[in-house]
Design a protein that fits this description.
- It is found in: Cell membrane.
- This is Na+/panthothenate symporter.
- Keywords: Cell membrane, Ion transport, Membrane, Sodium, Sodium transport, Symport, Transmembrane, Transmembrane helix, Transport.
- This protein is mainly alpha-helical and 533 residues long.
- It has a single domain, classed as Sodium/glucose cotransporter (Up-down Bundle).
Length: 533
């Protein structure tokens, strides 16, 4: 397959996304379709990034069925939506909060916290975005190695930046919904799922020969099944589960789609069914395709065995479908994360320090600031890709990012369920956990001789991840008891808890007494906390 065909496929696919977004924004598509909860639920399939589409095969080849943890962790998030996602939606909707930085700045009454969170998220997101660029570049290079990698990466970044500007920075208000963006990302999820299913069905029927052929091959090659059944290390598996549980709603792209682009609880309720099914289908495809590559004797890196199968069979259509599926996985998360990061940077880093013009021109300035920030984020992502390229596997780069984001989990749970968490306690815990993550996991990657150091750390990453989370949580709890929340923080904490409660329970009766309210809150806060305020 030539580079010209790949370019044609890429442009055609991205043009299709552009047309879908354009039709949504211009009202060509009916509103009942554009704002349908199913569309929003499908857009959450952006969780399955290039790390999942390609990296799951590398992880399965190395650790067997342990690859399932990335799917199971996210599935748990959506199953537990009534306890986590829906309460967060009520809070963000009530107080017009569109990002993790907004949430913590509001809960702990501190603009400084919003700025600090934004900086931390920006740093943690760079490896994640670099993964998407690396996956796209390598997918092109596996098929046609004639074009320099840096040119492919630059073209990808420019196109993604253009799309992000056109459909992620059309409104000055950070709370305006981007229907075109949501529809485009939902379409990407459908394309991604269709691609992996098509490849799996072909492998199952024509390579394996159906159930009988696959069973016969597995009986003749017991090591293939045995490798998949290798027992996972309990410590690493549990840590990964927590990491992916948090990644499904704390990462900037997921938080943006879950809460920034969502206005109804119905969408999240529907996602409790759609997302687990979506993830289950993708997870079940992995071993069938992995065994197909082993059956064919496919050479190359395990992350890109799908492209290797296409080359081995000399089937251009197989490689083309794989390429489009990988492009949809990489572009979707990059677009949404870039838009989310630009909005956070504008709100928490630039607006507090710059002086805007008069109100008539202010909105144009805001739009151009956000568009410039989108370009800045893509430039940072490209720089991270150039620095990290060819040094680490997709799976390890992904873990670096996800372990960074899990540092926000204690703060989110405290916002929902622990009214006594204080500003100083949250800050102390976050700084302690993030510092441990930086020095034990991220810094070794950035050092010049990192290739030597990280080999020794790979076996200990789960210990460092668990310790960082433990240090974060314990520090927040201990410092919150030593330096309790002030009156303003306590009022906000109570507001968060009240808004997280179901509306019918909290507000349906016109004759509720204070005792009734305290009784309802006691199940969530405990009797002492409920009656204390």
């Amino acid at each position: 397959m030539s580079i010209y065909l790949l370019a044609t496929l890429s442009i055609t696919y991205l043009l299709l996304l552009f047309l879908a977004a354009y039709a949504s924004e211009r009202g060509i598509l009916p509103q009942r379709l554009v704002q349908n909860p199913i569309i929003h639920s499908l857009s959450l399939g952006v969780y399955a990034s290039a790390w999942t589409f390609y990296g799951a095969f590398g992880m399965a080849a190395e650790t067997g069925f342990s690859y399932l943890v990335s799917y199971l962790g996210a599935t748990a998030t959506f199953i537990l939506a009534p306890l986590i996602l829906i309460p967060l939606l009520r809070i963000t909707r009530s107080y017009q909060l569109s990002s993790v930085a907004d949430l913590f700045a509001f809960r702990f009454r501190s603009a400084f916290i919003g700025s600090l969170i934004t900086l931390f998220i920006l740093i943690a997101s760079m490896p994640l975005l670099a993964i998407q660029i690396q996956a796209f570049v390598e997918s092109v290079h596996v098929i046609d190695s004639s074009v320099p990698r840096h040119k492919i990466a630059a073209a990808f970044c420019l196109i993604i930046a253009l799309f992000s500007i056109l459909y992620g920075a059309r409104h000055a208000s950070l709370r305006s919904r981007h229907d075109g963006l949501v529809v485009a990302i939902a379409l990407e999820s459908i394309v991604k799922l269709t691609a992996i299913l098509t490849l799996t069905l072909f492998a199952f029927i024509w390579i394996h020969g159906g159930f009988s052929g696959l069973s016969e091959w597995l009986s003749q090659h017991p090591e293939a099944l045995q490798n998949m059944k290798q027992p996972p290390e309990s410590g690493s598996w549990r840590t990964l589960f927590i990491v992916f549980f948090a990644a499904a709603f704390i990462t900037p792209h997921m938080f943006h789609l879950l809460f920034g682009e969502n206005a109804t609880e119905k969408s999240l309720t529907l996602s409790m069914i759609i997302m687990p099914v979506f993830l289950l289908i993708m997870a079940l495809c992995v071993p069938i395709l992995l065994w197909a590559s082993q059956r064919l004797g496919t050479l190359g890196h395990p992350d890109f065995i799908l492209l290797g199968i296409g080359n081995q069979l000399n089937q251009q259509w197989f490689g083309a479908i794989t390429f489009i599926g990988g492009l949809s996985a990489a572009s979707g998360i990059t677009i949404v994360a870039t838009v989310a990061l630009a909005s956070m940077m504008q709100n928490h880093l630039l607006l507090p320090i710059i002086r805007l013009p008069d109100s008539i021109r202010m909105y144009k300035w805001l739009l151009w600031i956000r568009r410039s920030l989108i370009l800045f984020v893509m430039l940072g992502s490209y720089t991270a890709y150039v620095y990290l390229d060819h040094h680490y596997e997709l799976s390890y780069l992904g873990l670096i990012t996800f372990i960074g984001f899990v540092q926000f989990l204690p703060g989110v749970l405290a916002t929902l369920y622990w009214q006594r968490a204080s500003r100083i306690g949250f800050l102390s815990g976050l700084i302690a956990g993030a510092a441990f993550w930086f020095f034990t996991i991220l810094l070794p990657v950035l050092l010049p001789d990192a290739s030597l150091i990280t080999r020794d750390l790979l076996d200990k990453w789960y210990l460092f991840a668990l310790l960082s989370l433990l240090i974060n949580t314990l520090t927040m709890i201990l410092v919150s008891f030593v330096v309790p929340a002030d009156a303003e923080e306590q009022d906000t904490a109570l507001s968060c808890v009240l808004n997280a409660l179901p509306r019918p329970s909290s507000f349906s009766s016109d004759h509720e007494t204070l005792e009734d309210i305290a009784q309802r809150l006691s199940s969530r806060l405990g009797k002492a906390s409920a009656e204390g305020d």
